[in-house]
Amino acid sequence: MKIEVFSDDESTARAAAKFIAAEARAAVASRGQFVMAVSGGRTPWIMLRALGNEEVPWAHIHVVQVDERVAPGGRPDRNLTHIRENLVGHSPIRPEQIHAMPVESPDLEGAAKQYASALGEIAGSPPTLDLVHLGLGPDGHTASLVPGDPVLNVTDLDVAVTGVYQGRRRMTLTYPIINRARRILWLVTGNEKAGMLLRLRQGDPSIPAGRIRQDQAVIFADREAAGNLAA
User: Fold this and answer.
1) The predicted structure's pLDDT at residue 231
2) Which string of b and e fits 159-197 if b means at least 16 CB within 10 Å?
3) Which of these, 34, 58, 103, 206, has the minimum number of CB atoms within 10 Å of its CB?
4) Residue range 111-145, pLDDT digits in tens
5) Looking at the chain, which runs of residues are DSSP E strands?
């Protein structure tokens, strides 16, 4: 698993945007479209804004969600709120190219199946995403694959609903669809992530992030997060 280290979170985010743009151009040239799954977090919002300044074949892009809190629309803790804020208006992408997880449905399990079906329509059967962007929590979680949640053991669904984590249930992509992705991009910043980044790099299966395949993965980290890695 390749790792690139940058001076701070903003330079890390800008480099990630350039990487995504290059992946998008290659995918569209090869397969006619680029399907990217996006996680939440402050640094990713910088990345998405920066993506608007890159050369991207926007007409052929689909943006889907890695995970989402079960909360009303427009709430500041909803990832979708920030995805829309930082892409629509900062790039030529059309709102309908951003595919929202249906977390406002009264039937969450049914909604998860609906989203999996939508991913199949966009990305084939079984759906193969071109790029999945992931973050890393101080507890070793990624997406909404959190320590101790039954979703960690799901092998027959691409989208599932978690238990309560930090006050909210979540809808999340599961290991099967993440590990089918053509490319996995980790964006890790901040010294509170340093210990877990080391364990991720070592492929530690005792943390949720350590169960993500590494052969198609690249890590973009800032110096604070990469502090525990050997030079």
Assistant:
1) 45
2) bbbbeebeebbbbbbbbbbbebbbbbbbbbbbeebbebb
3) 206
4) 999 999 999 999 999 999 999 999 999 999 999 99
5) 2-6, 34-38, 61-65, 67-69, 98-99, 131-134, 159-161, 170-173, 184-188, 217-222
